[in-house]
Specification:
InterPro entries: DUF1800. With 476 residues, this protein is mostly helical. It contains 23 helices and eight strands. The longest helix has 31 residues, at 77-107.
């Protein structure tokens, strides 16, 4: 493979497995065998770093105050104010957590790990009013992002955020709550059509007693667990939650369901059943080891096929993070990142529902596309931005941010960000042309209609702003 082909192949790999690659690094890796580039994503030792924005002490203190206030029938004016203050603090901590993770993605030296965490964040979609629980779940997904899927699934299932979100706290003997059991199969593992309503009922009984303590730790309560026999997938026994999970994973259709979701996220929104079946068979053989499966995907010839390059719409987070990493952007007012996410339709830790963000073409409509095309010039040059794009399904982010969800007037904000142009521009050889810059910045080919405009750019800086403001920059 010649250097040009290697250049395109590695650029595609880093676009999908991470959030892009610097020109210097791309040039260096293009001179080597492409398998060397893949090694960077699978180091022998990986030490995931937890997010620690929300402290345990703050969280426990607020939980205890909330519990005390919740136990009272009538609250004094002072206690009502105290409850409002707790809610305000939780909203602030939630925003801090959101910004911390987004900035982690912008600066991390292990972008693949954060990209996988982002995948699991959407797969195990969950909302929590408690920012500590949300942080805890995010760290579970990061720690296990490339490990054993069963371990990840069990840990997620036992997390207070998920137990709370899917009402398993209310799931008890003689009064089963089926929410968690249903979503476990429908959205997290095997998919619709591969289980019955009776399987859901029996599974719910197996998860009775799975709760959490006031300190945010998993707790199994035998007193409210249904220990009678259950019949699940045609087998009868005194099954508990982990036994149910084992039986779900024993079904090869679970590997197919997971492979289809991984394929849609990393390869193509249009499924290729042959490639998905190949991936699923390998996943099942490797006992659901995620890192091994991802290595197989990125080593496959079909991953680099022309039909799989430059064909996916960047999610809002991929777009914001990719732009920020590419140009070494510093946000002097990080709160603008909240508004960007909300207006573009992907607010981290706040999915529209338990199915997560639908992705694909749903990321773009007429208003959000116009906003997306304005953002690069405003972020890279500074300026006032009109947030009238694709709103969050319940506008929760802007409500929390502005405290007055009244007027239909779009929110306006001074971006107040700086790109490090010196760092960006010094990566390129002095002979680099604007057209060659476009070949680096864009995954699809430069539209012939825009080629003269780019080639006639006054400078590489001017060309970069023009290129990132094109519709093609929205594709990866």
């Amino acid at each position: 493979m010649d250097k040009k082909d290697n250049f395109l192949k590695i650029k595609h790999l880093y676009s999908r497995a991470g959030f892009g690659i610097s020109y210097t690094e791309l040039e260096k890796l293009s001179k080597k065998n492409s398998s060397r580039a893949l090694e960077n994503f699978f180091p022998k030792e990986r030490k995931p770093q937890d997010l620690d924005t929300v402290s345990t002490e703050d969280s426990r203190s607020q939980m205890m105050m909330q519990a005390a206030l919740g136990a009272k029938k009538d609250l004094t004016p002072e206690e009502k104010e105290q409850r409002k203050n707790i809610t305000r603090l939780q909203n602030e901590r939630s925003r801090d957590l959101n910004i911390a993770w987004l900035q982690r993605m912008m600066t991390t030296e292990d972008p693949f790990l954060e990209k996988m965490t982002l995948f699991w964040h959407g797969h195990f979609a969950c909302r929590s009013n408690d920012p500590y629980y949300a942080q805890q779940l995010n760290n579970i997904q990061r720690t296990n992002a490339l490990g054993d899927f069963k371990t990840l699934l069990v840990e997620v299932s036992k997390s207070p955020a998920m137990l709370q979100y899917l009402n398993n706290q209310q799931n008890r003997k003689n009064h089963p709550n089926e929410n968690f059991a249903r979503e476990l199969m429908e959205l997290f593992t095997i998919g619709r059509g591969n289980y019955t309503e009776q399987d859901i009922k029996e599974s719910a009984r197996a998860f009775t007693g799975w709760t959490y303590t006031k300190e945010g730790a998993f707790e199994f309560k035998p007193a409210i667990h249904d220990s009678a026999d259950k019949t699940f997938f045609g087998k009868t026994g005194n099954f508990d939650g982990e036994a149910i999970i084992d039986m779900i994973l024993a079904n090869p259709k679970t590997a197919t369901f997971l492979s289809r979701k991984l394929y849609a996220f990393f390869v193509n929104d249009v499924p290729n059943d042959t490639h998905i079946a190949e991936l699923a068979t390998y996943m099942y053989q490797k006992q659901y080891h995620i890192g091994t499966v991802m290595q197989k995907m990125f080593s496959s010839d079909w991953f680099y096929a022309p039909e799989n390059i430059g064909n996916k719409i960047k999610s809002p987070v991929e777009f914001i993070v990719g732009l920020s990493r590419e140009f070494y952007v510093t946000y002097n007012r990080p709160q603008v990142l909240i508004q960007l996410q909300s207006s573009l339709g992907q607010y981290l830790f706040n999915p529209p529902n338990v199915a997560g963000w639908p992705g694909g073409r749903s990321w773009i409509d007429s208003s959000s596309l116009m906003l997306r095309m304005k953002i690069p010039s405003l972020v890279l040059n500074g300026g006032v931005i009109d947030f009238s794009g694709k709103a969050d399904p319940e506008d929760e982010a802007l409500i929390a941010l502005n405290k007055k969800p009244k007027a239909p007037v779009p929110a306006r904000s001074y971006v107040n960000a700086q790109a490090d142009w010196d760092k960006f521009l010094t990566e390129f050889p002095k002979t680099l042309t604007p057209t060659e810059l476009a070949a680096y910045l864009l995954q699809p080919q430069l539209n012939a209609k825009f080629a003269p405009m780019v080639s006639n750019s006054q400078s590489l800086k001017h060309a970069a702003i023009e290129i990132t403001s094109m519709p093609e920059y929205q594709l990866c």
